[in-house]
Write a sequence for this structure.
């Protein structure tokens, strides 16, 4: 049986979020923690994209000659895609700040172990 | 459309960018920051109430000419009433909140500029950016837009901590970001689920869909969305289990920065709390969740404050405890209770900023915030000591200061709602707040000065004294004339009380 694209995306997204939470919570290496957080963010982004998926739908670009009624019934939902774009930018800037802080902490402590730096 | 509504967000962003560009040009930074900070509280006073549609796209029902070429699938259904653009709503409650945020921002900027010899453009950037983000959080009717600015506010908070250059600030900032790296995506996931169920991110439209049977309100997906948004709310406002990291963040910022960060927390608490009430009030347990979390915050925050020996950490925990009072008002769900809760929020922002900047004078003079190493400050600055004492009285709810009125209203509201136990707990915790404050006040001001305590700066800047006096005036005016504030909050409370 072929799994529906949307369901498959949702499952993948959930798996990414779970893996990310595990990494962020249980791994001692700060870089791995940040990778875990990136997984969570990307998982949520994938989840959002899946919300806009329309089976058999078309890209939401209104071309000359298209009937507006037909377009509105067949185009995928554009809002989640616009949201994901913003979310990616936020995620990238957050990660840049986190990595910057880790660089400073590495210079200070000589380690990137959370147990040593953050006292966990 | 009122152009001043978006300007409330745009002006601080432009200020922030200017200050960042002018970094190291001390005199220019000072002048520009003061002029632009003065605009912050002025804008909400000048702006008229109304809605602002970004791009000018009003709902089709309000502007039918836009829909002439659109298919009937859009014009002939409920989509006609939906908001196609990001919408900002500016009503009386927002007017008051943005004004108070602007006032605290102005005084925080003013204090910081005169307490440092070389004003930092980056520090100013972070402060203004945070103010812009929280203003947007208060104004927006779009839950995704709220998430975006929620994240910007978190980044600005981290920035303020990093620029404050206090020992251990990087470690605290990273901890805060790691927790935020989990909590903020959870908030976004909640937004995604709402979008999945209702097809919308505009809060008014989501409520329309729920009320008019366009979606099933009993859907378990909505329940999960509620849980995830509540999780983001807990993080953003520093409620348990995030109270420890939030108070650590306060303690690693300069007093002016901490005063501003706590204002961010309170307004995030209010903005998301109101949204949770607006969207999910039909869920029977939503009020109980808010009440439970608030009670926990109150008890944990205030009891943990007693144990602190660091002044900023103590005020941080007291601020978390005071958030609980606001939550109790919201959770009661009555018009009177919500008005009291919102009034308490306004008071808390002012009083906590008053305390942070007041105790900040001690930090400025000695460089120490550990109460065990301090003492004898009353002799040096009796006027400042009196101002700090009054700030503490205000927080504990001593009449005729402002928190007395809001706490009295909260106690009355809990009795009216049939929950007098909450009133008793609030009274007891106010007493504990007073004890905690007096313990710190005694240690810093009344106890003899330790022999090894070195005074680094003899004179406190006049700007700081002026800021403290302004806070005191606000506390007294709001305490003597509470109707001035509650009249602004009543319409929002009536709307919320009607749906709960």
């Amino acid at each position: 049986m072929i799994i529906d694209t949307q369901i498959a995306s949702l499952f993948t997204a959930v798996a990414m979020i779970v893996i990310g939470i595990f990494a962020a919570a249980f791994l001692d290496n700060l870089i791995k923690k940040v990778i875990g957080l990136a997984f969570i963010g990307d998982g949520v982004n994938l989840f959002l994209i899946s919300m806009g998926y329309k089976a058999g739908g078309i890209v939401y670009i209104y071309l000359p000659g298209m009937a507006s009624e037909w377009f509105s019934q067949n185009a995928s939902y554009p809002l989640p895609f616009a949201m994901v774009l913003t979310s990616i930018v936020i995620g990238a800037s957050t990660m840049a700040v986190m990595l910057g802080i880790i660089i400073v902490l590495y210079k200070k402590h000589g380690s990137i172990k959370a147990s040593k730096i953050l006292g966990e | 459309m009122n152009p001043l509504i978006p300007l409330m967000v745009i002006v601080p962003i432009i200020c922030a960018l200017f200050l960042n560009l002018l970094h190291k040009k001390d005199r220019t930074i000072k002048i520009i920051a003061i002029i632009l900070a003065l605009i912050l509280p002025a804008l909400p006073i000048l702006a008229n109430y109304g809605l602002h549609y970004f791009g000018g796209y009003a709902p089709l029902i309000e502007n039918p000419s836009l829909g002439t070429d659109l298919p009937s699938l859009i014009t002939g259904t409920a989509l006609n009433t939906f908001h196609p653009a990001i919408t900002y709503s500016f009503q009386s409650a927002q007017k008051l909140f943005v004004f108070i945020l602007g006032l605290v921002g102005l005084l925080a900027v003013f204090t910081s500029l005169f307490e440092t010899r070389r004003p930092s453009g980056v520090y100013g950037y972070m402060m203004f950016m945070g103010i812009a983000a929280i203003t947007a959080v208060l104004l927006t009717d779009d839950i995704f837009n709220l998430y975006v600015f929620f994240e910007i506010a978190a980044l600005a908070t981290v920035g303020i901590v990093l620029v404050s250059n206090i020992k251990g600030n990087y470690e605290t900032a990273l901890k805060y970001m790691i927790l935020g790296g989990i909590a903020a995506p959870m908030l976004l996931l909640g937004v995604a689920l709402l979008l999945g169920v209702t097809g919308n991110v505009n809060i008014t439209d989501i409520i329309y869909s729920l009320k008019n049977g366009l979606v099933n309100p009993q859907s378990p997906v909505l329940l999960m969305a509620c849980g995830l948004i509540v999780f983001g709310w807990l993080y953003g406002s520093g409620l348990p289990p995030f109270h420890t990291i939030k108070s650590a963040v306060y303690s690693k910022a300069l007093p002016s920065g901490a005063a501003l960060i706590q204002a961010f927390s309170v307004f995030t608490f209010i903005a998301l709390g109101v949204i949770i009430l607006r969207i999910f009030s039909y869920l029977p347990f939503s009020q109980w969740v808010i009440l439970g979390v608030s009670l926990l915050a109150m008890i944990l925050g205030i009891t943990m404050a007693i144990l602190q020996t660091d002044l900023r950490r103590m005020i941080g925990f007291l601020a978390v405890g005071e958030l609980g009072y606001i939550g109790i008002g919201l959770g009661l769900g009555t018009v009177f209770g919500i008005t009291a809760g919102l009034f308490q929020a306004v008071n808390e922002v002012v009083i906590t900023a008053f305390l942070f900047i007041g105790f900040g004078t001690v930090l400025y003079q000695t460089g120490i915030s550990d109460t065990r190493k301090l003492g004898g400050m009353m002799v040096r600055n009796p006027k400042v000591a009196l101002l700090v004492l009054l700030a503490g009285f205000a927080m504990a709810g001593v009449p005729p200061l402002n928190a007395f009125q809001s706490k009295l209203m909260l106690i009355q509201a809990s009795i009216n709602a049939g929950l007098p136990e909450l009133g008793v707990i609030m009274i007891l915790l106010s007493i504990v707040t007073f004890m905690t404050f007096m313990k710190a006040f005694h240690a810093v001001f009344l106890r003899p000065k330790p022999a090894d305590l070195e005074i680094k700066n003899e004179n406190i800047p006049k700007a700081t004294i002026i800021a403290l006096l302004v806070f005191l005036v606000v506390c007294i005016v709001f305490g003597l004339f509470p109707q001035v504030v509650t009249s602004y909050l009543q319409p929002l409370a009536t709307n919320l009380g009607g749906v709960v």
Observations:
- The interface with chain B takes residues 17, 21, 24-25, 30, 33-34, 37, 40-41, 43-44, 47-48, 51, 68-69, 71-73, 77, 79-80, 83, 86-87, 90, 93-94, 97-98, 101-102, 104-105, 108, 117-119 of chain A (CB under 8 Å).
